[in-house]
């Protein structure tokens, strides 16, 4: 069974607690109840996890981002100071990968969005597909609502204009049309105000939001995207959204580069997505929908767990489970931008999309470790070049700007700069980089 399908990022039970049925046959109800009490949040893609790939890696971004210190990275399993029993390891058996204390985890999703290589893959009901679909529905609902207002305004203007020419009848209402407004809100915000359920994506925490969801909502018709953060100031987990303003600024840069007629902003009131008296408000309706998705996911997970346990008891081999798709949000983001058309002038793309990676041949030793350790294969070996030199390829679409290549290089030969152009980002062929033959340089970085 693949490591990705076998290990969950938010299962922190001790081994004796993971089987409520003891040594007997599995009980589907017991499994579902346990999952409902402490639902899983993400799976670990071990090949992308930097500490899992390299014991010398110092990456602890998931742990640093956690608002409740529920994540530990690199704890030795056999030391008394940090017993492994207190954590559910998402690595195979080694001490390198992250461990998440399941009892302390608050399911804010910050570890998922903070991971620089997308090694933590969200699962239902907050998986990438579900959140992207919710963003589409909210954006489309906002566009439909704005179009309805425009039609009503046009009809009213037409009645008042009377005999004015037809061109004026069309132009007048267009000037008064309000933008299509949609947004994201946490459950506390839903309880605090009357929010339009159709135009709002309900989340356990705003930390789940990233640039891809914002841009996807804009591509679905939303012209004004509000991220409601009113409850965050008094939330005990406010640290989870400390980087949310940076995310919004990054998303806005992408929208501006592609010249979208859309603006994303953090707001503290529900004015933009408030429900009118004759519209359904969010709150219990949205939460019931979320829990309904969760129950469905839990039943499926429980059935899979029961089937796997019975296969193990009977000696049958369990078929490999399908793996969640890494970078699902990123590919959707690139698809959205490509469908919107390339901006004029071959503009430089924001670094949130990808940097330009260059290698200085004068400082390069030719070891190609940068390509060997790249977790997404954005930088990879492609064979030999004339003269015995090594040929590398850089595929900007795969780059997560995680910094692994620059951290790996002992001679400081690699640079990552915000100079990548749109045409390079969407190039059909990766860029070739030729580095020298393997050699020993006198000075290291």
Topology summary:
Elements: H1 3-6, H2 28-37, E1 42-44, H3 50-53, H4 61-65, E2 71-73, E3 88-89, E4 98-100, H5 110-114, E5 120-122, H6 128-161, H7 166-175, E6 181-186, H8 187-192, E7 200-203, H9 211-219, E8 224-228, H10 244-257, E9 263-267, H11 284-314, H12 328-340, E10 356-359, H13 369-373, E11 379-384, E12 390-394, H14 404-408, E13 414-417, H15 422-425, E14 431-435
Word description of this protein:
The chain has 445 residues and is α/β, with parallel strands linked by helices. It has helices spanning 3-6, 28-37, 50-53, 61-65, 110-114, 128-161, 166-175, 187-192, 211-219, 244-257, 284-314, 328-340, 369-373, 404-408, 422-425, and strands spanning 42-44, 71-73, 88-89, 98-100, 120-122, 181-186, 200-203, 224-228, 263-267, 356-359, 379-384, 390-394, 414-417, 431-435. The protein has a 4-stranded parallel beta sheet. Strand 3 (88-89) and strand 4 (98-100) form a beta hairpin. The radius of gyration is 25 Å and the shape is globular. It starts with a helix and ends in a 10-residue tail after the last strand. Mean pLDDT is 78; it is low at 1-26, 76-89, 161-176, 283-288, 290-295 and 316-321.
The radius of gyration is 25 Å
Q: Please report which band the strand proportion falls in: under 5%, 5-15%, 15-25%, 25-35%, 35-45% or over 45%.
A: 5-15%
- How would you spell out the order of helices and strands? HHEHHEEEHEHHEHEHEHEHHEHEEHEHE
**Overall body shape:** globular
Q: What's the N-to-C terminus distance?
A: 41 Å
How many helices? 15
Using DSSP, what is the number of strands?
14
Query: How do the strands line up in the largest sheet?
Result: 7-6-8-9
Uncertain runs are 1-26, 76-89, 161-176, 283-288, 290-295, 316-321
- What structural class results from the helix and strand content? alpha/beta
Helix fraction, binned, reads 25-40%
What summary fits the major beta sheet? 4 strands, parallel
Mean pLDDT: 78
